[in-house]
Amino acid sequence: MRERWRTGTADLVPADLLFLDETSTNTAFTGLRARAPNGQRAYSTAPRNHGPNVTLLAVLCPAGIATAVAIPGATTRAVFETFVD
């Protein structure tokens, strides 16, 4: 399997490769840990999924991020195809 992959990709130029990545998060995300002075307890509240979801589409190239877009909510097929175009 690896040998077949190596021979099939031998002619690729790494500098020409682009990778499309998709990730999402809820904007109300809160860390699980807090800090307080020695001997004192840290108190806080954390909202749970009470904010909008945001999806990030980004194209990665050898030099870094080539282009990116943040989309409110989930990515649809139409949004994804428009970004690829």
What percent of residues adopt helix (DSSP H or I)? Answer: 10-25%
| Radius of gyration, whole Å | 20 Å
> What percentage of the residues does DSSP assign to strands (E)?
25-35%
Query: What is the terminal separation in angstroms?
Result: 32 Å
Structure description:
- It is a single chain.
- The chain is α+β, with helices and mostly antiparallel strands and 85 residues long.
- The protein has a domain at 18-26 and 50-85.
- The chain is 19% helix and 31% strand.
- It has two helices and three strands, in the order αβββα.
- Strands 1-2-3 form a three-stranded antiparallel beta sheet, with no helix packed on it.
- β2 (53-61) and β3 form a beta hairpin.
- It is elongated and about 60 Å long.
- The two termini are 32 Å apart.
- The mean pLDDT is 88.
Describe the secondary-structure layout.
Layout: H1 2-9, E1 19-26, E2 53-61, E3 64-72, H2 77-84
Antiparallel strand pairs: 1-2, 2-3
Key terms:
single chain, 85 residues, alpha+beta, three-stranded antiparallel beta sheet, 31% strand
At a glance:
The protein is an alpha+beta fold and 85 residues long.
